Automatic annotation (TrEMBL):
Pfam families: DUF2255. InterPro entries: Split_barrel_FMN-bd, UCP028498. It comes from Nocardiopsis dassonvillei (strain ATCC 23218 / DSM 43111 / CIP 107115 / JCM 7437 / KCTC 9190 / NBRC 14626 / NCTC 10488 / NRRL B-5397 / IMRU 509). It comes from the Bacteria. This is Uncharacterized conserved protein UCP028498.
Amino acid sequence: MTTWTSEELARITDAEELRLAPLRVDGRPDSRGRVWVVRDGDDLYVRSLSGRVSDWYRSTRVRPRGRVRVGRVARNVVFVDADPGLNDRIDAAYRAKYGHYATSHLRAITSPEAAATTLRLVPYPDCRRSGSRRHAGR
Protein backbone atom coordinates (compact mmCIF):
# COMPACT_ATOMS: atom_id res chain seq x y z
CA MET A 1 0.00 0.00 0.00
CA THR A 2 1.06 3.57 -0.55
CA THR A 3 -0.11 6.91 0.76
CA TRP A 4 -1.63 9.99 -0.80
CA THR A 5 0.75 12.74 -1.81
CA SER A 6 0.14 16.20 -0.39
CA GLU A 7 -0.77 17.41 -3.91
CA GLU A 8 -3.31 14.59 -4.37
CA LEU A 9 -4.86 15.29 -0.98
CA ALA A 10 -5.15 19.00 -1.77
CA ARG A 11 -6.67 18.47 -5.22
CA ILE A 12 -9.15 15.86 -4.03
CA THR A 13 -10.10 17.86 -0.93
CA ASP A 14 -10.69 20.98 -3.03
CA ALA A 15 -12.86 19.12 -5.54
CA GLU A 16 -16.61 19.14 -5.17
CA GLU A 17 -16.99 15.53 -6.32
CA LEU A 18 -14.89 12.45 -6.90
CA ARG A 19 -15.41 10.01 -9.78
CA LEU A 20 -15.53 6.53 -8.33
CA ALA A 21 -15.22 3.25 -10.24
CA PRO A 22 -15.19 -0.05 -8.33
CA LEU A 23 -13.53 -2.89 -10.24
CA ARG A 24 -15.66 -5.48 -11.98
CA VAL A 25 -15.02 -9.19 -11.55
CA ASP A 26 -12.93 -9.10 -14.75
CA GLY A 27 -10.75 -6.37 -13.23
CA ARG A 28 -11.96 -3.47 -15.38
CA PRO A 29 -13.24 -0.28 -13.72
CA ASP A 30 -17.02 0.02 -13.58
CA SER A 31 -17.77 3.73 -13.53
CA ARG A 32 -20.60 4.28 -11.07
CA GLY A 33 -20.61 8.02 -11.06
CA ARG A 34 -19.69 10.79 -8.69
CA VAL A 35 -19.64 10.97 -4.92
CA TRP A 36 -18.80 13.51 -2.28
CA VAL A 37 -15.43 13.03 -0.62
CA VAL A 38 -14.04 14.41 2.64
CA ARG A 39 -10.67 14.43 4.33
CA ASP A 40 -9.74 13.67 7.93
CA GLY A 41 -6.02 14.15 8.49
CA ASP A 42 -4.27 12.34 5.64
CA ASP A 43 -7.20 10.02 4.96
CA LEU A 44 -10.03 10.37 2.45
CA TYR A 45 -13.56 9.08 3.00
CA VAL A 46 -16.66 8.51 0.90
CA ARG A 47 -20.21 7.50 1.80
CA SER A 48 -23.25 6.37 -0.08
CA LEU A 49 -26.04 8.93 0.01
CA SER A 50 -28.45 6.03 -0.62
CA GLY A 51 -27.05 3.79 2.09
CA ARG A 52 -26.29 0.13 1.47
CA VAL A 53 -28.63 -0.13 -1.55
CA SER A 54 -26.37 1.99 -3.77
CA ASP A 55 -24.94 0.09 -6.75
CA TRP A 56 -21.43 1.46 -6.31
CA TYR A 57 -21.40 0.63 -2.60
CA ARG A 58 -22.61 -2.93 -3.20
CA SER A 59 -19.88 -3.34 -5.81
CA THR A 60 -17.24 -2.42 -3.22
CA ARG A 61 -18.55 -5.20 -0.99
CA VAL A 62 -17.97 -7.79 -3.73
CA ARG A 63 -14.61 -6.48 -4.93
CA PRO A 64 -13.05 -3.86 -2.63
CA ARG A 65 -10.74 -2.31 -5.21
CA GLY A 66 -11.33 0.40 -7.73
CA ARG A 67 -10.21 3.66 -9.22
CA VAL A 68 -10.93 7.24 -8.24
CA ARG A 69 -10.41 10.38 -10.26
CA VAL A 70 -10.53 14.12 -9.69
CA GLY A 71 -9.35 16.16 -12.65
CA ARG A 72 -5.87 14.94 -13.52
CA VAL A 73 -5.48 12.96 -10.30
CA ALA A 74 -6.35 9.29 -10.79
CA ARG A 75 -5.44 6.52 -8.36
CA ASN A 76 -6.17 2.88 -7.78
CA VAL A 77 -7.66 2.39 -4.32
CA VAL A 78 -8.79 -0.21 -1.86
CA PHE A 79 -12.15 0.54 -0.23
CA VAL A 80 -11.70 -0.07 3.51
CA ASP A 81 -14.49 0.07 6.08
CA ALA A 82 -13.96 3.17 8.18
CA ASP A 83 -13.65 3.09 11.94
CA PRO A 84 -17.18 3.87 13.26
CA GLY A 85 -15.52 5.88 16.03
CA LEU A 86 -14.67 8.50 13.41
CA ASN A 87 -18.27 9.06 12.31
CA ASP A 88 -18.72 12.30 14.25
CA ARG A 89 -15.54 13.78 12.72
CA ILE A 90 -16.50 12.60 9.24
CA ASP A 91 -20.02 14.03 9.71
CA ALA A 92 -18.44 17.36 10.68
CA ALA A 93 -16.20 17.25 7.60
CA TYR A 94 -19.24 16.68 5.36
CA ARG A 95 -21.11 19.57 6.99
CA ALA A 96 -18.13 21.91 6.66
CA LYS A 97 -17.40 21.07 3.03
CA TYR A 98 -20.93 20.66 1.71
CA GLY A 99 -22.85 23.07 3.95
CA HIS A 100 -23.87 25.13 0.91
CA TYR A 101 -26.10 22.27 -0.30
CA ALA A 102 -29.72 21.73 0.71
CA THR A 103 -30.21 20.65 4.31
CA SER A 104 -31.93 17.48 3.10
CA HIS A 105 -28.70 16.38 1.35
CA LEU A 106 -26.63 17.04 4.46
CA ARG A 107 -29.09 15.14 6.63
CA ALA A 108 -28.93 12.20 4.21
CA ILE A 109 -25.11 12.04 4.02
CA THR A 110 -24.79 12.28 7.83
CA SER A 111 -27.62 9.85 8.58
CA PRO A 112 -26.90 6.54 10.36
CA GLU A 113 -27.69 4.71 7.10
CA ALA A 114 -25.07 6.68 5.17
CA ALA A 115 -22.57 6.56 8.04
CA ALA A 116 -22.78 2.76 7.94
CA THR A 117 -21.35 2.90 4.40
CA THR A 118 -18.34 5.09 5.19
CA LEU A 119 -15.27 3.85 3.34
CA ARG A 120 -11.67 5.00 3.62
CA LEU A 121 -9.91 5.28 0.27
CA VAL A 122 -6.48 3.67 0.53
CA PRO A 123 -4.26 4.13 -2.54
CA TYR A 124 -2.25 1.26 -3.93
CA PRO A 125 0.39 1.18 -6.67
CA ASP A 126 -0.54 0.87 -10.31
CA CYS A 127 1.77 -1.87 -11.61
CA ARG A 128 1.36 -0.70 -15.19
CA ARG A 129 2.81 2.70 -14.36
CA SER A 130 5.70 1.42 -12.28
CA GLY A 131 6.89 -1.04 -14.91
CA SER A 132 6.73 -3.92 -12.43
CA ARG A 133 3.85 -5.72 -14.07
CA ARG A 134 3.94 -9.44 -13.37
CA HIS A 135 3.24 -11.99 -16.05
CA ALA A 136 1.80 -15.44 -15.43
CA GLY A 137 4.35 -18.21 -15.64
CA ARG A 138 7.41 -16.03 -14.93
